[in-house]
Amino acid sequence: MNVRLMHPDRDFSAGLEQWQASTAQDVVRDLELDTLWRAMAGDDAFVFNVASRALMAATGNDVATIRYRQAVAHDAIRHPETVRQLYLLLGATLEKQRHGFNLYGAEPASVLHNATGALGMYVEALRQLRLVARAQRGNVSSEGFVRLFAMLEKELGDDYLDGVRHQLDALHFRRGMLLGAELGAGCRGRHYTVRVPAAEPGWLHYLGKKPPSCSFRLDERDESAGEELARIESLALDAVADTLARAAARVERFLVQLRTELAFYLGCINLQHRLDALAAPVCLPTLAPTSAAGPNASGLYDVSLALQRGQLPVGNALQAGPARAILIGGAGQGGKTSLLRAIGQAQLMMQCGLPVAADSFDAPPVSGVFCHFPRDEDRDVHGGHFDHELQRLNAIIDRLQPGALILLDESLSSTNEREGSEIAGQVLRALIDSGMRIAYVTHFHRMVADCRKRYGERCLPLLTRHGPDGAPDYRLVAGEPQPGGEGADVYRKVFGDAE
Amino acid sequence: MKFHGILFPSPRFALRREAPTCFPDLQLDRIVDVIASSRPQYDLAPFFHTAPLDAGTIAYRQEVMRELARPEMNHAVRDFAERLGTMRRQRALADRPHHIHEARRWFLASAESYCDALETLMQGFDACPPASAGLAGFHAHLRDHLGSPAYRELAADVKQLLADLSGVHYSIQITEDKLTVRPLGEEADFGLQVAQCFGKFAEDEPGRQAGRFDQPEAMNPLEARILDAVARLFPEVFASLDRFCRVHAGYLEPRIAAFEREVQFYLAYLEFMEGFASAGLPFCYPQLSNTDKHEACCGTFDAALALGLLAEGREVVTNDYRLDGSERLMVVTGVNRGGKTAFARLFGQLHYLASLGCPVPGTSARLFLCDHVFAHFERAQPLGGAQGALETELLRLRDMLARATPASVIVINEMFSEAPLEDALYLGRRVMARLSAFDLLGVYVTFLDELATFDDKTVSLVSQVDPEDPAVRTFKLARGPAAGLAHAMGLAERSGLTYGRLMERIGQ
Q1: How far apart are CA A353 and CA A11, in angstroms?
Q2: φ, ψ for residue B444 (rounded to 5)?
Q3: pLDDT number for residue A443
Q4: pLDDT score recorded for residue A199
Q5: Residue ranges of chain A with pLDDT lower than 50?
Q6: Are A373 and A30 in contact (CB under 8 A)?
Q7: Is B101's Cβ below 8 Å from some Cβ in A?
Q8: A175 contacts: CB under 8 Å, gap ≥ 6
């Protein structure tokens, strides 16, 4: 019994190990993923946890998984009530179990008792799951939901569930227990098993010969006899208790897993609703082949910014075409860092199977996402700000796999422009030549020019735009940064028209 | 020739319970104790006390020992002994006060183990037939026994009864305080039902740790009542069990029982030797002669001493010796604690163990087969005894010599050391004369250097020291004239304790 709503071939299992690396923590911070996750989770810590794990594992997903998830997410978004209903049902069941029973006592009798209780609750939950599945069967079209509902229908039919209930009832042994045994060493009893009593004898039985039997009563004050009887019963129940404990554990695992994967889609639904409320566009991204460059997008915006501000920021169009390196320049607060973030966020969301914050988004999958944004620590560190920057860059280099996406925001600018530009140029060329994708916010105009000259189309320079009053437009256009044009303007502004 | 026993091919020898008098001095008591206490239930000591044996028996034993040293034979016989050990444990359980059926069931189990042991050994022998007279004899005896009507009946009854008992299936219905026992009918296995119902869930899940269910030692009164009920419900089976115990009470064939015990003599000794072999100290099968007193031994050592040394991780020094021509008695002199007493002991041990038919310490040994080993070691004298110390010692010696024959071996470790030197020398020479008259083989450790050149039967051996440092003993003995006072003087010189040096030092 598998859930398989997030992968076509297995249950979702990504853990927190990917958080270990400092590079991962940088990504969370620089792309402001916390905001995204909070929007997905609302105030449900469980959903937050699942959403964050899923997003951090996004670059590990293959194309089949991404498409699979997109389909399931599509169904989820169209039927949010169903998803919510199932999620809450599972939560309630599992919560009761946590407060109720301990599945692993030592004595078979108590294990049996606990497992029977747990299974009773779980079976009821499964029955309700199946009812929902039956009701919604016609409404879903994704492979994931179709398969899940069919499985529930098939494995948990009414007959089966009735049989289970009957069996669980018998396990209370309300009418006493029947044991079977053999003679072992020294004629002591062994191989105790529990037996099913034969049907009640009919009236014919009293006509014919009764099978021989030998009865005796136990003195209720005889403690040692009572203990011995309990021991024998335990021996007999051991195998049964084991089976039940395993069954209960397995069902519980299934229910927990289902809740986990539904949590993800609940997050998806919540995000969709939050963005719809802002009238912010959300689209189903398309996966380009790995060899293609990209991304190509329209109306792309920083989703965390939108969620924080409660309003839709200006979207950007991006036609990377064959470009592997997107170099973003221009004056002041023109939305450069925002665009960088938006690219990173969209990439991760796409690979996670989520819809993306844009009108359209088309990009190939990447092997990993890395961020190198400015840090205050670069200024404080005694060893030299530049050293710290280089350290962080090295940490990224160490973890790079071919086909990764690296987002750099004014990297290597904590030293003078000549030095910074030279080193940055080398880094950039190395990254491009080794097949990485780069988006780099930088004011090193010479480096951009060299890059353009060397790589032609494979390098796309973008510039911020400003209106006549100097206010930024937030739409970036293709164009190379001008060498220090600002200086003359500023001088003129301050000193008037004196040379 | 009909098989009599694996230790004694014929009924000639009576088993001796007490140890021979030479044992403590030669530390053979310690050796036998180590060997016998490795398997105390077989009471092996008397076998080691019954010596000397004749050449025929010795050859018989050596042949068996060699065969049992081979891995497959060793393994098969050990396995046999273990199974019989199980049989004995089960019999012991049957003899304890128990519920009657419980006791009988254990008796049946012991019979089953017995049959199992015999048949397994037979298979082992058939696959790899023994060649030694002893084991081949036992093989034939075993075959006869297994073919006998009595055994065949036993084996068949065991099989039948085991089958009958394993067919006893009963049910216990427990309702509040009432238990009802019945023969088990067609009632289905509840566990199976549960497994079928929940099977699809339980499949891949790892099981919880299985409960620890130690069966309490004694049968509980409740179990007893249930068993009584079962016996009443299956009267024929339990009657058969009862009959079996009566009819087959004496199933254990005496010669097989004797073999079980006696073969441990070999197995224990082989294990004993193994302890030394792994330290590079081999044993060997001695060549023996009733008539020829020429002897030669290489790489030999005092086994009792070696046990202690090996336990402390210390080195064991081996020695060689020869007795050619008219040589009979080795007089051993030299520094104290230089290995003289050890040599005396090993001489005694060699002859005794050889006369038991056992291998002896060393890489090769040619020995005279003696009729008795006498040991006379110095005793601590009680103060103010009624007789004088010297007289007591001489009386002991006289008793010993009265029993000695020309075929005996004697080991003397220090005599007359309490006496004044002239008396000791006089007595010593008289004793040597008697020993020579008997042509006795032996070792005499003494401080009387003069005895080392008594007659042509005397060989002088001296305990050696390191030529570089006379304070260091090598524990080797070599032929040579007794060193007299030379060694003592050398030591004194080195320590500045000669007269001359003392005069120089004291005056200062």
Answers
A1: 15
A2: -130, 110
A3: 84
A4: 66
A5: 381, 499
A6: yes
A7: yes
A8: A197, B175
List the helix and strand counts (H, then E) for chain B: 18, 14
Per-residue pLDDT at B508: 47
> What is the band of B13 on the pLDDT scale with cuts at 50, 70, 90?
confident
Angstrom distance (rounded) from CA A166 to CA A172: 11
Task: Please give the Cα distance from B296 to A15 (Å, whole number).
Answer: 80
ipTM: 0.71
How would residue B504 be classed by pLDDT, with cut points 50, 70 and 90?
Answer: low
Query: Distance between the two ends of chain B, CA-based, in angstroms?
Result: 88
Mean of all residue pLDDT scores within chain B: 87
- Does B249 contact A at CB distance below 8 Å? no
- The nearest CA of chain B is from the CA of A209 a distance in Å of 14
The predicted structure's pLDDT at residue A213: 85
**Among candidates A164, A195, A248 on the partner chain, residue whose Cβ is nearest the Cβ of B189:** A195
As a whole number of angstroms, the distance between CA B97 and CA B117 comes to 26
What amino acid is encoded at A181 in this protein?
A
Supply the pLDDT for residue A104.
Answer: 61
Q: Are A326 and A436 in contact (CB under 8 A)?
A: no
- pTM, two decimals, is 0.69
Contact B194 A104 (CB under 8 A): no
Q: Do A183 and B174 touch (CB under 8 A)?
A: no
Amino acid identity of A254?
A: F
pLDDT of A336 reads: 86
Give the Cα separation of B146 and B118 in Å (integer): 8
Predicted pLDDT of residue B417:
72
pLDDT at A381: 47
Q: In the prediction, which pLDDT does B382 show?
A: 58
Q: Distance between CA atoms of A148 and A88, rounded to whole angstroms?
A: 18
A23-A24-A28-A31 Cα dihedral, nearest 10 degrees: 60
Among partner residues B178, B197, B222, which is closest to A225 by beta-carbon distance? B222
Note if the bond before B235 is cis, omega within 30 degrees.
no
Per the CB < 8 A criterion, the answer to whether A62 and A367 are in contact is no
Candidates B179, B180, B190, B197; CA nearest to A193 is B190
Q: Mapping DSSP to helix (H, G, I), strand (E, B) and coil, where does residue B417 land? A: coil
CB B438 within 8 Å of CB B405: yes
**Cβ count within 10 A of residue A380:** 9
Residues 60-99 of B with CB under 8 A from A: 93, 98-99
Say if CB A389 and CB A380 are below 8 A apart. no
- What is the per-residue pLDDT across B362-399, written as a single tens digit (0 to 9) for each? 999 999 999 999 999 887 655 555 556 777 788 888 88
Closest chain A C-alpha to B77 CA, distance in angstroms: 26
The reported pLDDT for the residue numbered B68 is 95
Residue B347, both tokens:
């001489």
Chain B residues whose beta carbon lies within 8 Å of the beta carbon of residue A233: 174
Q: Which residue has the tokens 């869930």?
A: B201
Q: Between A163, A175, A195, which is nearest B171 by CB?
A: A195
Using CB atoms, which residue from A186, A212, A232 is nearest to B182?
Answer: A212
pLDDT digits (tens, 9 = 90+) for B231-276: 999 999 999 999 999 999 999 999 999 999 999 999 999 999 999 9
Sheet with B178-183: list strands edge to edge: A189-195, A177-183, B169-175, B178-183, A214-217
Is the CB of residue B186 less than 8 Å away from at least one CB of chain A? yes
CB A272 within 8 A of CB A59: no
**Spatial contact of A357 and A297, defined as CB atoms under 8 Å apart:** no
How many whole angstroms from its chain centre is CA B448? 38
CB of B200 closer than 8 Å to CB of A161: no
d(CA A250, CA A156): 15
What's at B173, amino acid-wise?
Answer: Q
Element containing residue B459 per DSSP (H, E): strand B458-465
Tokens representing B236? 């024929």
